[in-house]
Specification:
It is a single chain. The protein is mostly beta strands. The protein has two domains: 2-324, 5 Propeller (Tachylectin-2, Chain A), CATH 2.115.10.20; 326-540, Jelly Rolls. The protein is 1% helix and 47% strand. Strands 25, 27, 28, 30, 35, 36, 37 and 39 form an eight-stranded antiparallel sheet that branches. A hairpin with a 5-residue loop joins strand 11 (125-131) and strand 12 (137-144). It binds (Z)-L-Arabinonhydroximo-1,4-lactone (6LW).
Length: 547
């Protein structure tokens, strides 16, 4: 028995869904506008997760073009029917209802290849899958009670319908099995069906994926209901603990049974720091579950998400210190790399342990396909450096680091060639118009409307064509610096500005994402000609137990 630290997947890994096949567990989560989409992670112990592939990993498999931040791929479910893996998910396009919708992808091997999406003729979000003992497939999901309304502020309901395995089409009548009226709650979401000892259980999130988030459960004698809620609902929430509790927003749970008959839930929650803020976003936590009187009991004896979980046979490695979470240079082969609305291979090419990044006209401020490759910020305290070879960067182009929440909200630290020197600039873009915050006007940044409000700048000799840009996050303070390495050493560090990560979390900005840290290169709408080589290093601070 090992004590394992939560969250088991730190950083933006929301809406987790899990299944077990033999000795292995498989987990998927939401990835919104980032590609490859829907990472498939594998673990022997529910604690150490390795990304083995992605469901959406081919260009053209799904069209994410133009999808705004926090749209895209929402809340997948993963299951195995004894032969194949199934993932069901929703593509949400805030601009175009026609393009989005629910779909299924199939694979013999969780690592892929996954089939092209098979679209389901049913509205709403958070689809899930259930295979009953007769081999029938039941799709269920959540949608607005009044579908004409465009906003998710009204009541939702959970539907169940059979899927014909041969035609892969929904068939038979629809059954509405749950809405908030059953528990005097709002927004039943993330439903998942299970069967235990002949009884059917419906697990659902309620109250939205923020402070009031909760897990509720209902049961029935037949898969199609009627479902009766647990009198103790919600069976897990942190909302009664208040905003000072270090873990908030607990919900969106999925269940799995170990080979030894123990049960666990994976779910999302947020760790607050710097006040009521959670810049890392919604992370995946592990919670033990036992069955009492025919109901699941979450975190028995504790009643809240434990900071440390006892997991039989788990590796003692602290979470976030996975094989793929090793500190240091993150090579292009690392499966955690993502790009925006396109695959990393579309905008960048591996170049040794770094990326060759051709400049693109698209900037970070619009929902285009910028020259961007990035990784989740998985630790509150982290040092990130980007070593840039800018010899091929042209006048009028800029490249550097971005701390990204969305098109509208991000902080950049970039470099541009000017008058035979390199100018380093830090900017903050906040809100729709890119202005948002009063600040001292800096004439050097004026030429780039929408690129953000200036925070600081420096001018550096350009002779070597190499520069290091860095971000040092300590809690919500993010120092932005540069240095110029020489053959004799790393070069002295020069502070450019300090950003506040609270500007960029969803408490401030709205949306569903945690922070990403990436490299980018743009000509801000002008024809692009140059390129850069970037080498990205990620060092969680604070010893062997990352925050
Ligand atoms: C997810 C849904 C939710 O689909 O957030 O508000 C969505 N709740 O369960 C995106 O993570």
């Amino acid at each position: 028995m090992s004590l394992v630290r939560n969250p088991v997947l730190p950083g933006c890994y929301p809406d987790p869904s899990v299944c077990r096949v033999g000795q292995w567990y498989y987990l998927v989560c939401s990835t919104f506008e980032y590609l490859p989409g829907l990472p498939v992670m594998r673990s022997r112990d529910l604690v150490t997760w390795e990304t083995v592939g992605h469901v959406v990993d081919r260009e053209g498999m799904l069209d994410l073009g133009g999808i705004r931040s926090s749209g895209g791929l929402y809340a997948p479910t993963i299951r195995h029917d004894g032969e194949r893996f199934w993932v069901v998910c929703t593509l949400v396009d805030q601009n175009d209802d026609q393009r989005g919708g629910n779909f299924v992808c199939l694979a013999d091997d969780a690592a892929g290849p996954w089939s092209d999406p098979i679209w389901l003729d049913e509205r709403g979000i958070d689809p899930s899958l259930f295979f009953d003992d007769d081999g029938r497939v039941w799709i269920h999901g959540t949608r607005l009670v009044e579908p004409d309304r465009a906003e998710w502020h009204d009541q939702t309901e959970v539907w169940i319908r059979e899927l014909d395995r041969t035609s892969m089409r929904l068939t038979g009548p629809e059954h509405l099995v749950w809405n908030g009226a059953l528990t005097n709650a709002v927004w039943a979401e993330g439903p998942h069906l299970f069967t235990v000892d002949g009884t059917y259980y419906l697990l659902a999130a309620e109250a939205g994926t923020e402070f009031h988030h909760a897990v509720s459960v209902a049961r029935a004698d037949r898969v199609t209901g009627p479902y009766v809620g647990n009198a103790g609902n919600p069976v897990l929430t942190h909302r009664h603990l208040g905003r000072r509790h270090p873990v908030v927003g607990v919900g969106h749970a999925d269940l799995v049974e170990t080979p030894d008959g123990d049960w666990f839930a994976v779910l999302l929650a947020m760790r607050t720091y710097g006040g009521y803020h959670y810049p890392l976003g919604r992370e995946t936590f592990l919670v033990p579950v036992v069955w009492e009187d025919g109901w699941p009991v979450f975190a028995p004896g504790v009643g809240m998400v434990p900071r440390e979980v006892e997991v039989p046979g788990a590796s003692a490695a602290p979470s976030g210190w996975n094989p793929e979470g090793r500190p240091g240079v993150v090579a292009p082969s690392d499966r955690r790399w993502t790009a925006l609305r396109a695959l990393p291979a579309t905008v960048a090419a591996p170049d040794g342990d770094g990326w060759h990044l051709p400049v693109r006209a698209d900037g970070l401020g619009e929902p285009g396909v910028p020259a961007f490759v990035g990784l989740r910020q998985q630790h509150q305290d982290v040092d990130v450096t980007l070593e840039l070879d800018v010899a091929a960067l042209q006048v009028g182009e800029r490249a550097g680091l971005v701390l990204r929440q969305s098109e509208q909200d991000h902080v950049t630290l970039d470099v541009t060639p000017e008058g035979g020197r390199l100018v380093v600039r830090a900017r903050r873009r906040a809100g729709a118009d890119g202005e948002g915050v009063p600040g001292r006007a800096d004439p050097r940044a004026d030429a780039l409307p929408g690129s953000g409000e200036p925070m600081g700048h420096a001018s550096v000799a350009a002779d070597a064509g190499r520069i290091v840009l860095g971000m040092r996050a300590r809690g919500t303070d993010v120092d932005l610096f540069h240095r110029s390495p020489t053959p004799d050493g790393p070069g002295r560090e020069h502070h450019v500005a300090t950003a506040d990560a609270r500007w960029l979390d969803t408490v401030t900005t709205g949306g569903f994402l945690g922070l990403w840290i990436g490299a980018f290169a743009t000509s801000d709408g002008r024809p692009a000609a140059g390129s850069v080589r970037v080498r990205f290093a990620y060092h969680p601070a604070g010893g062997s137990i990352p925050r």
